[in-house]
Design brief:
The protein has two domains: 8-132, no CATH class; 158-288, Intergrase catalytic core (hpI Integrase, Chain A, Orthogonal Bundle), CATH 1.10.443. Helix content is 53%, strand content 4%. It has 16 helices and four strands. Helix 3 packs antiparallel against helix 4, helix 7 crosses helix 12 (270-284) and helix 14 (310-317) packs across helix 15 (322-343). It is globular, with a radius of gyration of 24 Å.
Protein backbone atom coordinates (compact mmCIF):
# COMPACT_ATOMS: atom_id res chain seq x y z
CA UNK A 1 0.00 0.00 0.00
CA UNK A 2 1.40 3.43 -1.00
CA UNK A 3 1.54 5.89 1.87
CA UNK A 4 3.43 8.81 0.30
CA UNK A 5 1.46 11.65 -1.19
CA UNK A 6 1.82 12.33 -4.89
CA UNK A 7 3.72 15.43 -5.94
CA UNK A 8 1.55 18.28 -7.30
CA UNK A 9 2.49 17.39 -10.89
CA UNK A 10 1.66 13.74 -10.38
CA UNK A 11 -1.57 14.58 -8.55
CA UNK A 12 -2.67 16.70 -11.53
CA UNK A 13 -2.00 13.78 -13.88
CA UNK A 14 -3.82 11.37 -11.57
CA UNK A 15 -6.98 13.44 -12.17
CA UNK A 16 -7.01 12.10 -15.75
CA UNK A 17 -7.40 8.57 -14.38
CA UNK A 18 -3.73 7.58 -14.37
CA UNK A 19 -2.67 4.80 -12.03
CA UNK A 20 -1.30 6.38 -8.80
CA UNK A 21 0.80 3.25 -8.18
CA UNK A 22 2.53 3.63 -11.54
CA UNK A 23 2.87 7.40 -11.16
CA UNK A 24 4.76 6.78 -7.92
CA UNK A 25 7.23 4.60 -9.82
CA UNK A 26 7.96 7.21 -12.50
CA UNK A 27 10.71 9.74 -11.77
CA UNK A 28 9.64 13.37 -11.52
CA UNK A 29 11.89 14.42 -14.41
CA UNK A 30 10.08 11.98 -16.72
CA UNK A 31 6.60 13.54 -16.34
CA UNK A 32 6.87 16.09 -19.16
CA UNK A 33 5.74 13.71 -21.95
CA UNK A 34 2.53 12.95 -20.02
CA UNK A 35 1.85 16.65 -19.44
CA UNK A 36 2.48 17.48 -23.10
CA UNK A 37 0.28 14.60 -24.31
CA UNK A 38 -2.57 15.40 -21.91
CA UNK A 39 -2.68 19.01 -23.12
CA UNK A 40 -2.72 17.88 -26.76
CA UNK A 41 -5.47 15.28 -26.22
CA UNK A 42 -7.64 17.78 -24.33
CA UNK A 43 -7.22 20.91 -26.42
CA UNK A 44 -6.41 19.83 -29.97
CA UNK A 45 -7.93 16.36 -30.18
CA UNK A 46 -10.87 17.18 -27.90
CA UNK A 47 -10.59 13.61 -26.62
CA UNK A 48 -13.18 11.98 -24.39
CA UNK A 49 -12.38 11.19 -20.76
CA UNK A 50 -12.07 7.53 -21.76
CA UNK A 51 -9.56 8.31 -24.54
CA UNK A 52 -7.49 10.52 -22.25
CA UNK A 53 -7.39 7.88 -19.52
CA UNK A 54 -6.48 5.05 -21.91
CA UNK A 55 -3.87 6.89 -23.98
CA UNK A 56 -2.17 8.53 -21.00
CA UNK A 57 -1.96 5.23 -19.12
CA UNK A 58 -0.52 3.63 -22.27
CA UNK A 59 2.15 6.33 -22.48
CA UNK A 60 2.82 5.97 -18.75
CA UNK A 61 3.49 2.24 -19.19
CA UNK A 62 5.94 3.02 -21.98
CA UNK A 63 7.72 5.71 -19.95
CA UNK A 64 8.17 3.23 -17.10
CA UNK A 65 9.72 0.80 -19.57
CA UNK A 66 12.05 3.53 -20.84
CA UNK A 67 13.01 4.34 -17.25
CA UNK A 68 13.95 0.68 -16.66
CA UNK A 69 16.00 0.70 -19.86
CA UNK A 70 17.59 4.08 -19.00
CA UNK A 71 16.30 5.80 -22.16
CA UNK A 72 14.35 9.01 -22.58
CA UNK A 73 11.30 9.53 -24.78
CA UNK A 74 13.28 11.39 -27.48
CA UNK A 75 15.88 8.64 -27.96
CA UNK A 76 13.43 5.92 -28.98
CA UNK A 77 14.17 3.79 -32.04
CA UNK A 78 12.60 0.78 -33.74
CA UNK A 79 14.73 -1.72 -31.82
CA UNK A 80 13.64 -0.28 -28.47
CA UNK A 81 9.98 -0.28 -29.54
CA UNK A 82 10.18 -3.90 -30.66
CA UNK A 83 11.73 -4.78 -27.31
CA UNK A 84 8.84 -3.09 -25.51
CA UNK A 85 6.14 -4.86 -27.51
CA UNK A 86 7.98 -8.16 -27.12
CA UNK A 87 7.81 -7.63 -23.38
CA UNK A 88 4.08 -6.92 -23.23
CA UNK A 89 3.00 -9.45 -25.86
CA UNK A 90 5.09 -12.56 -25.28
CA UNK A 91 6.05 -12.49 -28.99
CA UNK A 92 9.55 -11.71 -30.27
CA UNK A 93 8.77 -9.04 -32.87
CA UNK A 94 12.21 -9.39 -34.47
CA UNK A 95 11.65 -13.11 -35.13
CA UNK A 96 7.86 -13.36 -34.70
CA UNK A 97 8.23 -16.18 -32.16
CA UNK A 98 6.74 -16.75 -28.74
CA UNK A 99 9.20 -15.76 -26.00
CA UNK A 100 7.41 -16.84 -22.86
CA UNK A 101 7.35 -13.23 -21.76
CA UNK A 102 5.12 -12.51 -18.86
CA UNK A 103 7.30 -14.15 -16.22
CA UNK A 104 9.21 -11.76 -14.03
CA UNK A 105 7.83 -8.63 -15.66
CA UNK A 106 7.90 -5.82 -13.14
CA UNK A 107 5.70 -3.31 -14.96
CA UNK A 108 2.82 -5.11 -16.64
CA UNK A 109 1.25 -8.41 -17.50
CA UNK A 110 1.26 -9.88 -20.99
CA UNK A 111 -1.45 -8.07 -22.94
CA UNK A 112 -4.01 -9.17 -25.51
CA UNK A 113 -3.57 -8.20 -29.18
CA UNK A 114 -6.43 -5.69 -28.80
CA UNK A 115 -4.67 -3.93 -25.89
CA UNK A 116 -1.37 -3.99 -27.77
CA UNK A 117 -3.05 -2.36 -30.78
CA UNK A 118 -4.41 0.43 -28.59
CA UNK A 119 -1.00 1.00 -26.98
CA UNK A 120 0.59 1.16 -30.41
CA UNK A 121 -2.02 3.71 -31.50
CA UNK A 122 -1.33 5.82 -28.39
CA UNK A 123 2.43 5.84 -29.02
CA UNK A 124 1.97 6.64 -32.72
CA UNK A 125 -0.23 9.58 -31.76
CA UNK A 126 2.27 10.85 -29.18
CA UNK A 127 5.26 10.66 -31.50
CA UNK A 128 3.28 12.21 -34.35
CA UNK A 129 2.80 15.16 -31.99
CA UNK A 130 6.55 15.39 -31.33
CA UNK A 131 7.26 15.43 -35.08
CA UNK A 132 4.65 18.17 -35.58
CA UNK A 133 6.21 20.24 -32.80
CA UNK A 134 9.70 19.88 -34.31
CA UNK A 135 11.15 17.77 -31.51
CA UNK A 136 11.75 14.78 -33.79
CA UNK A 137 12.39 14.53 -37.53
CA UNK A 138 10.34 11.38 -38.04
CA UNK A 139 7.94 9.13 -36.16
CA UNK A 140 9.84 6.10 -34.80
CA UNK A 141 6.60 4.11 -34.37
CA UNK A 142 6.31 2.33 -37.72
CA UNK A 143 5.18 -1.12 -36.55
CA UNK A 144 1.89 -2.58 -37.68
CA UNK A 145 -0.79 -3.27 -35.12
CA UNK A 146 -1.32 -6.95 -34.29
CA UNK A 147 -4.43 -8.58 -35.70
CA UNK A 148 -7.15 -9.46 -33.24
CA UNK A 149 -10.58 -11.02 -33.32
CA UNK A 150 -13.26 -8.37 -33.16
CA UNK A 151 -16.06 -9.70 -30.98
CA UNK A 152 -19.66 -8.90 -31.84
CA UNK A 153 -21.29 -6.04 -29.89
CA UNK A 154 -23.38 -7.16 -26.94
CA UNK A 155 -26.96 -5.87 -27.06
CA UNK A 156 -29.71 -5.96 -24.41
CA UNK A 157 -32.60 -8.29 -25.34
CA UNK A 158 -36.07 -6.68 -25.29
CA UNK A 159 -37.23 -8.73 -22.29
CA UNK A 160 -34.19 -7.67 -20.25
CA UNK A 161 -34.67 -4.04 -21.28
CA UNK A 162 -38.26 -4.18 -20.01
CA UNK A 163 -37.07 -5.75 -16.75
CA UNK A 164 -34.41 -3.07 -16.39
CA UNK A 165 -36.87 -0.21 -16.88
CA UNK A 166 -39.34 -1.76 -14.43
CA UNK A 167 -36.55 -1.93 -11.85
CA UNK A 168 -36.09 1.84 -12.04
CA UNK A 169 -39.71 2.42 -11.07
CA UNK A 170 -40.73 3.29 -7.53
CA UNK A 171 -42.75 0.20 -6.69
CA UNK A 172 -39.71 -2.08 -7.12
CA UNK A 173 -37.09 0.36 -5.84
CA UNK A 174 -38.76 1.80 -2.75
CA UNK A 175 -35.43 1.95 -0.87
CA UNK A 176 -33.94 4.40 -3.39
CA UNK A 177 -34.91 8.12 -3.17
CA UNK A 178 -37.47 9.13 -5.81
CA UNK A 179 -35.26 11.81 -7.34
CA UNK A 180 -32.46 9.28 -7.91
CA UNK A 181 -34.86 6.72 -9.40
CA UNK A 182 -36.21 9.33 -11.81
CA UNK A 183 -32.68 10.46 -12.73
CA UNK A 184 -31.61 6.86 -13.35
CA UNK A 185 -34.64 6.10 -15.49
CA UNK A 186 -34.10 9.28 -17.52
CA UNK A 187 -30.46 8.35 -18.17
CA UNK A 188 -31.31 4.79 -19.22
CA UNK A 189 -34.13 5.95 -21.49
CA UNK A 190 -31.86 8.59 -23.06
CA UNK A 191 -29.00 6.15 -23.67
CA UNK A 192 -31.31 3.71 -25.43
CA UNK A 193 -33.45 6.27 -27.27
CA UNK A 194 -30.60 8.34 -28.70
CA UNK A 195 -27.67 5.93 -29.04
CA UNK A 196 -25.44 8.56 -27.44
CA UNK A 197 -22.02 7.79 -26.04
CA UNK A 198 -21.76 8.12 -22.27
CA UNK A 199 -19.48 11.18 -22.61
CA UNK A 200 -22.11 12.85 -24.82
CA UNK A 201 -24.90 12.10 -22.35
CA UNK A 202 -22.97 13.40 -19.34
CA UNK A 203 -22.00 16.62 -21.14
CA UNK A 204 -25.66 17.68 -21.52
CA UNK A 205 -27.10 20.61 -19.57
CA UNK A 206 -30.81 21.23 -18.81
CA UNK A 207 -30.91 24.04 -21.38
CA UNK A 208 -29.80 21.63 -24.12
CA UNK A 209 -32.88 19.43 -23.72
CA UNK A 210 -35.47 22.23 -23.38
CA UNK A 211 -37.03 24.30 -26.15
CA UNK A 212 -38.11 27.95 -25.81
CA UNK A 213 -41.46 26.80 -24.35
CA UNK A 214 -39.80 24.73 -21.64
CA UNK A 215 -40.73 21.44 -23.34
CA UNK A 216 -38.30 18.55 -23.85
CA UNK A 217 -36.98 18.64 -27.41
CA UNK A 218 -37.55 15.70 -29.75
CA UNK A 219 -34.20 16.15 -31.49
CA UNK A 220 -30.97 18.02 -30.90
CA UNK A 221 -27.57 18.52 -32.48
CA UNK A 222 -24.58 17.28 -30.49
CA UNK A 223 -20.82 17.25 -31.03
CA UNK A 224 -19.39 13.78 -30.60
CA UNK A 225 -16.14 11.91 -31.03
CA UNK A 226 -13.65 13.66 -33.30
CA UNK A 227 -15.70 16.88 -33.06
CA UNK A 228 -18.22 15.34 -35.44
CA UNK A 229 -21.66 16.97 -35.29
CA UNK A 230 -24.82 14.92 -35.66
CA UNK A 231 -28.53 15.06 -34.84
CA UNK A 232 -29.94 12.66 -32.23
CA UNK A 233 -33.63 11.94 -31.76
CA UNK A 234 -35.37 11.59 -28.40
CA UNK A 235 -38.38 9.27 -28.29
CA UNK A 236 -41.52 10.01 -26.27
CA UNK A 237 -40.70 7.63 -23.35
CA UNK A 238 -37.29 9.28 -22.95
CA UNK A 239 -38.81 12.77 -23.18
CA UNK A 240 -41.33 11.93 -20.46
CA UNK A 241 -38.60 10.44 -18.26
CA UNK A 242 -36.39 13.53 -18.60
CA UNK A 243 -39.35 15.85 -17.92
CA UNK A 244 -40.20 13.94 -14.73
CA UNK A 245 -36.57 14.06 -13.62
CA UNK A 246 -36.29 17.81 -14.20
CA UNK A 247 -39.22 18.37 -11.83
CA UNK A 248 -37.33 16.72 -8.94
CA UNK A 249 -33.77 17.68 -9.96
CA UNK A 250 -33.78 20.75 -7.63
CA UNK A 251 -34.08 18.35 -4.67
CA UNK A 252 -30.53 17.20 -5.43
CA UNK A 253 -29.35 20.81 -4.92
CA UNK A 254 -27.33 20.94 -8.14
CA UNK A 255 -23.93 22.60 -7.88
CA UNK A 256 -23.23 21.84 -11.53
CA UNK A 257 -24.71 22.89 -14.87
CA UNK A 258 -24.80 19.22 -15.89
CA UNK A 259 -28.22 17.74 -16.59
CA UNK A 260 -27.41 14.61 -14.63
CA UNK A 261 -26.00 15.19 -11.14
CA UNK A 262 -25.06 12.86 -8.33
CA UNK A 263 -26.65 12.61 -4.88
CA UNK A 264 -24.42 15.48 -3.66
CA UNK A 265 -25.38 17.78 -6.52
CA UNK A 266 -22.10 17.49 -8.41
CA UNK A 267 -21.75 16.50 -12.06
CA UNK A 268 -22.24 12.77 -12.53
CA UNK A 269 -19.08 11.07 -13.81
CA UNK A 270 -18.51 8.12 -16.12
CA UNK A 271 -17.55 6.03 -13.11
CA UNK A 272 -20.66 7.14 -11.20
CA UNK A 273 -22.90 6.11 -14.08
CA UNK A 274 -21.24 2.69 -14.27
CA UNK A 275 -21.86 2.15 -10.55
CA UNK A 276 -25.53 3.06 -11.02
CA UNK A 277 -25.87 0.58 -13.88
CA UNK A 278 -24.18 -2.12 -11.78
CA UNK A 279 -26.87 -1.55 -9.14
CA UNK A 280 -29.69 -2.05 -11.65
CA UNK A 281 -27.94 -4.97 -13.31
CA UNK A 282 -28.04 -6.86 -10.00
CA UNK A 283 -31.62 -5.88 -9.18
CA UNK A 284 -32.98 -6.66 -12.65
CA UNK A 285 -31.25 -10.05 -12.75
CA UNK A 286 -29.59 -9.43 -16.11
CA UNK A 287 -27.51 -12.24 -17.56
CA UNK A 288 -24.69 -10.07 -18.87
CA UNK A 289 -22.81 -7.12 -17.45
CA UNK A 290 -24.61 -3.81 -17.99
CA UNK A 291 -22.21 -1.15 -19.19
CA UNK A 292 -23.16 2.18 -20.85
CA UNK A 293 -22.06 1.26 -24.37
CA UNK A 294 -24.43 -1.73 -24.44
CA UNK A 295 -27.30 0.74 -24.87
CA UNK A 296 -25.59 2.16 -27.96
CA UNK A 297 -25.09 -1.38 -29.30
CA UNK A 298 -28.76 -2.14 -28.64
CA UNK A 299 -29.88 1.10 -30.31
CA UNK A 300 -27.98 0.24 -33.50
CA UNK A 301 -28.95 -3.44 -33.55
CA UNK A 302 -32.65 -2.72 -33.05
CA UNK A 303 -32.67 -0.12 -35.84
CA UNK A 304 -31.06 -2.55 -38.30
CA UNK A 305 -33.35 -5.40 -37.25
CA UNK A 306 -36.36 -3.20 -38.00
CA UNK A 307 -35.12 -2.37 -41.49
CA UNK A 308 -33.16 0.87 -41.09
CA UNK A 309 -30.60 1.61 -43.81
CA UNK A 310 -27.05 1.07 -42.58
CA UNK A 311 -25.92 4.51 -43.77
CA UNK A 312 -28.73 6.13 -41.80
CA UNK A 313 -27.63 4.19 -38.72
CA UNK A 314 -24.04 5.31 -39.38
CA UNK A 315 -25.24 8.92 -39.39
CA UNK A 316 -27.23 8.50 -36.17
CA UNK A 317 -24.26 6.89 -34.40
CA UNK A 318 -21.81 9.51 -35.66
CA UNK A 319 -19.41 6.94 -37.13
CA UNK A 320 -16.82 8.38 -39.53
CA UNK A 321 -16.40 5.04 -41.28
CA UNK A 322 -19.14 2.74 -42.54
CA UNK A 323 -17.01 -0.28 -41.61
CA UNK A 324 -17.44 0.61 -37.93
CA UNK A 325 -21.21 0.43 -38.33
CA UNK A 326 -21.14 -2.75 -40.41
CA UNK A 327 -20.25 -4.92 -37.41
CA UNK A 328 -23.86 -4.46 -36.24
CA UNK A 329 -25.10 -6.22 -39.38
CA UNK A 330 -23.37 -9.36 -38.09
CA UNK A 331 -25.35 -9.10 -34.85
CA UNK A 332 -28.56 -8.72 -36.85
CA UNK A 333 -27.72 -11.80 -38.92
CA UNK A 334 -27.08 -13.82 -35.75
CA UNK A 335 -30.51 -12.82 -34.41
CA UNK A 336 -32.15 -13.76 -37.71
CA UNK A 337 -30.41 -17.15 -37.60
CA UNK A 338 -31.76 -17.71 -34.10
CA UNK A 339 -35.31 -16.86 -35.23
CA UNK A 340 -34.91 -19.24 -38.18
CA UNK A 341 -33.60 -22.10 -36.03
CA UNK A 342 -36.37 -21.67 -33.48
CA UNK A 343 -39.23 -21.11 -35.92
CA UNK A 344 -38.64 -23.01 -39.17
CA UNK A 345 -39.60 -26.72 -39.06
CA UNK A 346 -36.80 -27.74 -41.46
CA UNK A 347 -34.12 -25.83 -39.55
CA UNK A 348 -34.10 -28.21 -36.60
CA UNK A 349 -32.08 -31.40 -36.33
CA UNK A 350 -33.94 -34.76 -36.28
CA UNK A 351 -33.27 -35.07 -32.53
CA UNK A 352 -34.91 -31.72 -31.83
CA UNK A 353 -38.02 -32.59 -33.83
CA UNK A 354 -38.34 -36.14 -32.45
Amino acid sequence: MIREELSPRKAALKNFGLSPQKLHLLDEDRLEPLERFSMYLQVEKDGSAHTLRSYLNDLLDFLLFLQEEDHDALSVDTILLRSYFTKISGVDFSRNKATGAGTGQSLMRTLSPRSQARKLSALKTYYRLLVRQGLLEENPVTMRAPKFYRSLPSFIPAQEMDSLLQTTEGETESSRPAELQLRDRAMIEMLYSTGMRVSELLSLSPSRVLDHNGEIVSEMRITGKGRKDRVVFIGDPARRAVAEYLVVRPRLRPKSESLFVNARGGALTDRGLREILNHYERNAGLRKRLYPHRFRHTFATDLLNDGADIRQVQEMLGHSSLSTTQIYTSVSRERLKEVYRNSHPRAKSPRETA
